Amino acid sequence: MSKSPIGIGLLGMGVVGGGVASTLDQKRDQLTALIGCPLDLKGVLVRDAAKPRAQKLPHGILTTNAEDIFNNPEIDIVVELMGGQDPAFDYIRKSIDQGMHVVTANKEVMARHGPDLLLAAQDRNVQVLFEASVAGGTPIIAPLMRDLVANEIIGIRGIINGTTNYILTRMANEGADFDATLKDAQALGYAEADPTNDIEGIDASYKLAILATLAFRARVRDTDVFHEGITKLTARDFQYADELGYAIKLLAIANSSEDGVQARVYPALVPQDMMIAKVDGVLNAVEIEADLTGNLLFHGAGAGALPTTSAVLADVIDIARNIVSSVAPPPSLSLSDDVRIRSMLELETRYYVRLTTTDRPGVLAQVGTVLGDLNISIASAIQKEMDDQAKQAEIVLMTHRASEAAMQQAIQRLNALDVVAEVGNMIRVEEW
Ligand SMILES: NC(=O)c1ccc[n+]([C@@H]2O[C@H](COP(=O)([O-])OP(=O)(O)OC[C@H]3O[C@@H](n4cnc5c(N)ncnc54)[C@H](OP(=O)(O)O)[C@@H]3O)[C@@H](O)[C@H]2O)c1
């Protein structure tokens, strides 16, 4: 092979960075054949140089000084796999400013600053690719940016957080409550010690902001995404949902219409016969509805060292091939900056409501009046359980389609009723 090697700088060598470093070594010949020249690891930035590492690295390339990467003229592509906002964003920015291409798996940085970074990269004539930032090893960014560009994307619906899908799958299968399942997931390494970003839907809202921005070619920020987590779900919600023919999934949904873009993450009741209801464990799935293709489902590993390495290396190979054949980076996306973001209150859907009420005649009539006054009609009402001693009953309501604004008001008014001890949960229903 006559072409000189392409230099890679790794920022971070943890779960994913470790997978990338090992695969660059193990698949060296295959990658060289694919690209037309070898990929050489020229620098690896970590926080703690003394930490034992499984990967064998060329002598002298491990560093704790980021400047060693930015100032290394042999590095063509910086692969950012540190995670988090700081200092990852600055390091990506600095790499671009130095004229280096960037591959990143960082959803937080891409959700908050992606469009700015892409513009900066265009100015410097370099590429920033980020396939691994959403759905790990399951390709979704490249399909949106390349394969589906001739389409108008109507909607995106997905399960894009493996940790919560694992927890919800176990709650559904084992009849377990949230707290116990979370603790177990942490002990088994499926949830982090601080699980907030996952269980509150924040991680999924970063990923949905990225997908919605690409799909609708409009700037959708993470702060534009409504998010609600899974912490209020109980074993009884799963039991009742099952009896009604539904699964409960943390869904990320974005739609575009003449009225603007709406993006939302929340646990939802999904009919059990829908494909997405059957996506279990740590797996991810993203369904895209587009005008030319109709519905497409992307389904697979959403995390893990090797699946995520696959996504990272696909981006690296893409850039490396462009370098080898001296192809200029394609123009950056042109995004509309003034898209209207529709508020959650404009949502219209069906609702599941679980109430604990006083067990006496006339309660359901009072509940019905509150809902009726707000134009919410009840599709079914089932009295589920009774506590004779406390003289309390549990009622599960399914509504017809109603507005979110009315539903929010209804929850407040129901909570204020003497006969209602507690509104246990309100879960939106998603059927498409
Ligand atoms: N894990 C997955 O399955 C997965 C899937 C999809 C996307 N991602 C994304 O991939 C990225 C990396 O995730 P990961 O799971 O591989 O993370 P990780 O295991 O925590 O590894 C992070 C690496 O970055 C280094 N690092 C962190 N902060 C640093 C700093 N300030 N200066 C220098 N080095 C620093 C750490 O150094 P030390 O080794 O010295 O601690 C470590 O090598 C994140 O953006 C994540 O969201 C991960």
- The total count of strands amounts to 17
* Uncertain parts: none
> Which range best describes the helical content: under 10%, 10-25%, 25-40%, 40-55%, 55-70% or over 70%?
25-40%
CATH names the topology of the largest domain as Dihydrodipicolinate Reductase, domain 2
Going by CATH, the architecture of the largest domain would be 2-Layer Sandwich
What spatial form do the alpha-carbon principal axes imply?
elongated
Gyration radius from CA atoms, angstroms: 24 Å
Number of helices in the DSSP assignment: 14
CATH class of the largest domain, anyone?
Answer: Alpha Beta
Beta-strand proportion? 25-35%
Q: Note the gap between the termini.
A: 53 Å
What's the number of structural domains? 3
Task: Describe, in plain words, how this protein is organized in 3D.
The protein has helices at 15-26, 28-35, 67-70, 88-97, 107-124, 141-147, 162-174, 178-187, 196-199, 202-216, 235-243, 305-324, 363-373, 404-416, and strands at 6-11, 39-45, 62-63, 77-80, 101-104, 128-129, 153-159, 226-227, 246-257, 260-271, 283-290, 294-301, 348-358, 378-387, 392-399, 402-403, 420-429. The protein is built from 14 helices and 17 strands. 36% of the residues lie in helices and 27% in strands. The chain has three domains: 6-137 and 305-324, 3-Layer(aba) Sandwich (Rossmann fold); 141-301, Dihydrodipicolinate Reductase, domain 2 (2-Layer Sandwich), CATH 3.30.360; 345-429, ACT domain (Alpha-Beta Plaits, 2-Layer Sandwich). The protein is elongated. By secondary structure, the chain is α/β, with parallel strands linked by helices. Bound molecules: NADP nicotinamide-adenine-dinucleotide phosphate. NADP nicotinamide-adenine-dinucleotide phosphate binds next to helix 1.
